[in-house]
Specification:
Chain lengths: ~200, ~375
């Protein structure tokens, strides 16, 4: 699994629960190091072991943890760069939803060996969508639920999201767009990211 | 994207409103080169300044191909990629292409020029506060901005990894170049330093130093005492040398000191003599006293036009053997006659080097001889 994914889990735990909890997670996962390196590749089981350890250390269901990771990735200031990259998906939340299919390709464009699960959006009309999430870590759909919920907020849209379960490596997410702009949302200026 | 100038369709079957959607950075020029219409993004770039009525050449400088910016020249360059620069504070670079208006289209004899930021899009977006709706839906500008940002973030992560790996590498190298007991450099480090000095053709002095009576300390007082003595010796040698000199432990009780930039035999002798004097001071260990001394031979790289490291080491070695032979506890600088003397002696059974093993300490005759010899130098 790509180090970026493991690193995201690490950042989530450290930024939300602190270093001590993260240390406990890594010990529980049976790993003898404490930090993941974004630009290295780790064995598949490591991600699985770490996620299991997070759930057991936090005493929370894994799917809740996964959803929180998704929310964290969009809303925490420490990972603002990722929020910005996601916002390039479109100027409105609806347009962002329509760019979901491109998400794995966009990720690969930035980091060629970062493989994300396939996403496919279906538009059922009158603000109802479903997103199919296929492959990758089981439960990845829960991350997408958290991520989309936070992004809807970020865009200032009001949306209801629900994980409809999964089988045979396919997870289905139901999206109901209640209001495209219920609040002002957070600003996104195209030219800010490289201003440094 | 509203259209004010009615009846001024720039091209048959197209309208400025259409062009505003397809090419939001276009401008329509009349036969005299004056702007009659500007696309919404182009207008935004100029801010509050109204473009209509101004001459194209006043707004833009055509950098390449070279031209005076007149309408006649622009039309002659129809279809050719133009490199332009905005005549504004930001001096933004632009790419452009001119197309003459079709016969019958108003304004007669006019042209349409479409512009793009090209590679300067990153700065332009910032400078003019552009959003994705300022670009045509088919324009790859936003994708390019995404890519720039994504690659910057990825590079940053890679850079951090590189720094960490570099740190680990330096630590590993440091370990590989360090003598674990004394913390001095080791033989490998010495070879490296000498190689670098040879490459840089930098002058230096080499002192080869061997402890006297060390084996006796080790044998009579134990290895712990021996190790303690070696650490003390190391500490003294580091104190007596400059920070960019190299002090290496190259054998059990054998050391090589590289003194950078030294070309004066007198100074080298002073340093060696001071070192030997300090090393001859009793070294307390637990409730006992260890007494050692040191012999040293030295050589200057500057005496050779093209110093060969192996030869220099050999010469310092020869001088060291002579120092041992002359009664220890002294420094002997290398000179060519030493080599001959040693050769003669070794054929005649000269074995001063091995003598350390059975020697227990300098006798009175030795001391006297050493004074005599020191006086000779």
């Amino acid at each position: 699994m790509h180090g970026l994914i493991n690193r995201a889990i690490e950042r989530f735990v450290r930024d939300t629960y602190g270093r001590d909890v993260w240390g406990a997670v890594m010990r529980r996962a049976g790993l003898d190091y404490t930090e993941f390196e974004s630009m290295l590749t780790y064995e598949e089981h490591v991600t699985h072991d770490v996620l299991g350890a997070v759930a057991s250390v936090l005493e929370r269901p894994l799917q809740d943890v996964l959803e929180d990771i998704g929310t964290y990735l969009v809303s925490h200031p420490n990972v603002e760069a990722l929020r910005r990259l996601l916002r390039f998906g479109g100027p409105t939340f609806t347009e962002f939803l329509h760019s979901l299919d491109d998400l794995p390709a966009r990720a690969r464009l930035a980091v060629p060996d970062l493989i994300l699960p396939d996403l496919e959006l279906r538009d059922h009309g009158s603000g109802r969508f479903s997103a199919n999430c296929r492959g990758g870590v089981p439960g990845f759909g829960h991350v997408i639920v958290g991520l989309l919920r936070a992004l809807a907020d970020d865009y200032g849209a009001l949306a209801m999201l629900e994980h409809k379960g999964g089988r045979d490596g396919l997870e289905i997410i139901e999206i109901r767009l209640l209001e495209v702009e219920h609040a002002s949302g957070r600003s996104f200026e195209l030219g800010v990211g490289v201003a440094k | 994207m509203t259209f004010h100038a009615e009846n001024k369709g720039p091209l048959p079957n197209s309208s400025p409103a259409m062009m505003d959607v397809l090419c939001p950075m276009h401008a329509v020029l009349d036969a005299t080169g004056h702007v009659v219409h500007a696309g919404p993004t182009l207008a935004k770039v100029f801010g509050s300044m109204p473009l209509v009525g101004l001459r194209f050449a006043e707004l833009f400088e055509v950098k390449r191909p070279q031209t005076d910016g007149s309408m006649r020249m622009l039309l002659a360059l129809a279809g050719v990629k133009l490199h332009l620069r905005l005549r504004s504070a930001q001096r933004t670079d632009l790419k452009g292409v001119v197309v003459p208006l079709a016969p019958g289209a108003a304004p007669a004899g006019g042209a349409l020029i479409d512009l793009s930021f090209g590679i300067s899009v990153v700065e332009a977006v910032r400078d003019y506060d552009l959003t994705s709706s300022d670009f045509a839906a088919t324009d790859l500008a936003v994708e390019m901005l995404y890519l720039v940002e994504a690659k910057t973030a990825a590079m940053e992560a890679s850079h951090k990894l590189n720094l960490r790996l570099q740190g680990a590498m330096i630590a590993a190298e440091e370990k590989a170049y360090t003598d674990t007991l004394t913390g001095l450099r080791n033989r490998r480090a010495l070879d490296y330093v000498l190689e670098r000095l040879a490459e840089a053709e930098q002058d230096f002095a080499l002192i080869h130093l061997d402890l006297d009576y060390f084996k006796a300390v080790n044998d009579s007082m134990g290895h712990a005492a021996g190790d303690h003595v070696l650490c003390e010796v190391a500490r003294i040698m580091v104190e007596e040398t400059r920070s960019d000199d190299t002090v290496a432990r190259v054998g059990g009780d054998e050391f090589v000191i590289v003194l950078k930039r030294l070309t004066d035999a007198g100074r080298v002798h002073d340093i060696a003599a001071r070192l030997i004097a300090r090393l001859s001071q009793p070294i307390p260990f637990a409730d006992r006293i260890c007494t050692i001394s040191a012999s040293a031979g030295s050589v200057l790289s500057c005496v050779h036009a093209h110093p060969d490291m192996e030869r220099l080491m050999l010469e310092a070695d020869t001088a060291l053997y002579v120092a041992k032979d002359r009664g220890r506890g002294r420094h002997v600088p290398y000179s060519p006659d030493l080599g001959q003397a040693c050769d003669r002696r070794s054929t005649a059974g000269c074995s001063a080097v091995g003598a350390d093993a059975i020697s227990t300490g300098p006798g009175p005759e030795d001391r006297a001889a050493s004074k005599e010899l020191d006086g000779d130098e």
